[in-house]
# Entry
Amino acid sequence: MPRKEATAEELLARAKANGYERGAHWEKDSIRDANRHVKKTKKNQDRFLHLYAKFMVLQAKEDCLKSRTPIPDEAAFTDTVRESCLGKGAPAPDIETVKDFFHFYIATSQGMLDHQSTIDSFFTGFTCVTETPTDKEEKSEVFNWVWRTLTKEGIIMNKKKPKHLFGKENLTEILVTLWTKDDLIFIHEQNRVQFTFIFHVYCWTGARLGAFFTGGLRYKDLELVMKRLPGDGWTLIYKINQRWVKNNCDPNNISFGAASREHAKLLYNNGALLLAMAIADEALFGFNSMEDLWRQEIPQGEDKVSLR
# Structure
């Protein structure tokens, strides 16, 4: 029997029962790209807009000096200029003002200028603060002007940051130092194990540090399997569900993951470290010691046993 289709009134009643109220979110939802940018990006945008406000204040002061207009209150004058250029609904600056501002920014800066991120930070930040859209063609014109004209004139240089890659030799040196050299402070053995495990995982997953420290790596994010070895015995295979990868806004989304297994050398055997931590924290169901794990057998006819 086909399912009866709900009427418009029934759907409205169901929505209201679940908290829906028409127009309740209009003001908040009218803001475009409200949560599009991460904290680091917003910080860069705020930095450029703060400098832009100072630039506009200096321009306004210069205009007042030329016209011999007195400035009675410095603080009020600064607030007025800032509101006129960055207040809600403020008009987008013309192309000449934008280019003049970038000349000012370059002349007051030290180090390299990242063309794309710098221009994006200014235009996107301006729109986020004022809610005034900017012209894409003008943004493209500024980018090409910085990239081609200023580089050709020698005002800026197209430089690339050197990449200092972290290799196996560096990993070995750090771990050997951690476990064999004296330290200025006492480090608990459990902290050494935790650091070594996190360091291993950080290296072979390529994850950002925030993946382990922002939300924290928890046992619920780990899937452990004892896999049968040819002949006799078993080895540990585990998977890390990375909830805190970049751009994953849903902490319950565990589609991003990486698997690993035990290593023959103890220094790199993060599988053994994981089991040791789990036993110490009483996180393994049905196992109270490492001896209990060693006695675990995989049933006949099966190739693996899942641990929980």
Remarks:
- The CA atoms of residues 136 and 288 lie 63 Å apart.
- Strands lie at 222-228, 234-241, 257-261, 304-307.
- The longest helix spans residues 39-67.
